[in-house]
């Protein structure tokens, strides 16, 4: 809060995503409300993180995401949230978990001396499974 309006993007995005998870676990919101809440947080994350890499010439969002190692399916999820039919809540939850993990590895581990980057092989395999399932879910939108 001492940053005021100049809060680092990663902190702002993390706070918004954690807020969604807290609201989700509270049981006070309906599924549609949770999708909108997760959706806004995910759209803001992709837009804010990739915006820093945008140049004078417009660069496709998928290319910018690849450059910063954001999974392409998260960008596709952002696209659906912005322009298409709203996805299922389960996919929004997976997106939130993947993005929080990206923030942990990319931002928070640096702040805390890389202690958070030590993952077991089980966690890496679980992450690969989440990404594979999300790609399958992508087909379900259509």
Could you characterize the architecture of this molecule?
- Residues 118-142 are annotated as: Disordered.
- This is LAS1L protein.
- GO terms for molecular function: endonuclease activity.
- It is a single chain.
- This protein has six helices and no strands.
- The protein has 142 residues and is an all-alpha fold.
- It has one domain.
- The longest helix has 23 residues, at 89-111.
- The N and C termini lie far apart (42 Å).
- Mean pLDDT is 80; it is low at 119-142.
What distinguishing features does this structure have?
single chain, 142 residues, mainly alpha, 72% helix, 0% strand, disordered C terminus
Short précis:
One of its GO terms (cellular component) is preribosome, large subunit precursor. The chain has 142 residues and is mostly helical. Helices cover 72% and strands 0% of the residues.
């Amino acid at each position: 809060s001492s940053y005021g309006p100049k809060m680092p993007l990663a902190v702002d995005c993390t706070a918004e995503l954690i807020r969604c998870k807290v609201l989700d676990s509270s049981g006070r919101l309906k599924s549609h409300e949770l999708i909108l809440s997760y959706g806004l947080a995910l759209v803001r994350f992709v837009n804010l993180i990739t915006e820093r890499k945008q140049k004078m010439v417009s660069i496709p969002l998928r290319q910018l995401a690849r450059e910063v190692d954001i999974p392409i399916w998260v960008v596709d999820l952002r696209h659906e949230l912005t322009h298409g039919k709203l996805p299922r809540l389960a996919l929004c939850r997976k997106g939130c978990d993947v993005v929080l993990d990206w923030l942990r590895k990319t931002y928070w581990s640096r702040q805390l001396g890389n202690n958070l980057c030590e993952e077991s092989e089980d966690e890496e395999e679980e992450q690969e499974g989440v990404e594979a399932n999300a790609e399958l879910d992508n087909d379900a939108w259509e």
